Amino acid sequence: MLEELKELWRYRELLYTFVVRELRIRYKNSVLGFFWSILNPLATVLVMTLVFKFVMGQQIPNYSAYILIAYLPYMFFQLSLLDASQSILSQITLLKKIYFPREILPLGSVISNFIHFLLAMGIFFVYLLIVWLLNPGDNPFRVTVLFLPVIMLLQLALTTGLALIVAALNTFYEDVKYLISVGLYLLFFLSPIVYFVEQVYHAPGIPDAYRNMVYVLYNLNPIAMLMTAYRKVTLDPQPVVMIRGGETIDAGVLPFDWTMFAVTVIICLLTLVWGYALFNQKKWQFVERP
User: Fold this and answer.
1) Which of 89, 72, 264, 270 is nearest to 162 (CA)?
2) CA dihedral for 157, 159, 160, 162, sign (positive or negative)
């Protein structure tokens, strides 16, 4: 694997070219360009806020910020895997003619989406600042936000590892891209994006005897743990009120689970290493695909 990394470094200018190409062609011939990458999640979060807050009665102040801080990272994860799944197949003719490290193709997709994600997060903080200026109160920027780059790098590692696996497998089995689409759809609802992790712990359908076990199993999902981490380090803790057994209970605020976060760190790094190893094992067979 060390030799593949050295070769990838020698081809770093080609990787840069692929990333720039991905950034240019995504919104080619569109008037708003990059802003489509932020307008889509903003429109989605606006609809979610209207439904959950004004139709279903969710009483959490600035609810849209709590959704957006988890939704933007999830969009990066989703778009990266979907783009990477097609990255090898779309260039299979080129691969049969010219040699270059094959991993440049899925890596280009992931890095270009990560750049969009960084820009979207910048706009998110501008949004927080505007909300604070319009409604002066507590400072919306927490000291723990300094931990945010660590979480983003961990998600980048997890996404890159999975993108390499998906790109390699989809080259031989095109069912993979459909499985990924279904999996991403289900994962969206199995991660704390439109709800809070406190609601999972206090869910009325879980017997008290199994509550801790279910909570641990839930947080073994690295995306669920990362979404919780984004919310915990960026925004103020928000007490959650919910109904259980016909009674309104205060679910309070659960402390950040550092033990489960450590497990997530291990999963992210192992996924990156295993994904790169699997891709290198399969990449010589790409040109043999009929």
Assistant:
1) 270
2) positive
Which tens digit of pLDDT belongs to each residue from 81-111? 999 998 888 888 888 788 888 889 999 999 9
Q: Which amino acid is at 125?
A: F
Q: How far apart are CA 28 and CA 94, in angstroms?
A: 22
Average pLDDT over the chain reads 84
Helix or strand or coil: residue 32? Answer: coil
Residue 175 CB: number of other CB atoms within 10 A? 9
| Phi/psi of residue 108, nearest 5 degrees | -60, -40
Tokens linked to 261: 């976060």
Cβ proximity of 84 and 164 under 8 Å:
yes
Q: At what angle do helices 2-10 and 12-26 cross, to 10 degrees?
A: 70
Amino acid at 229: A
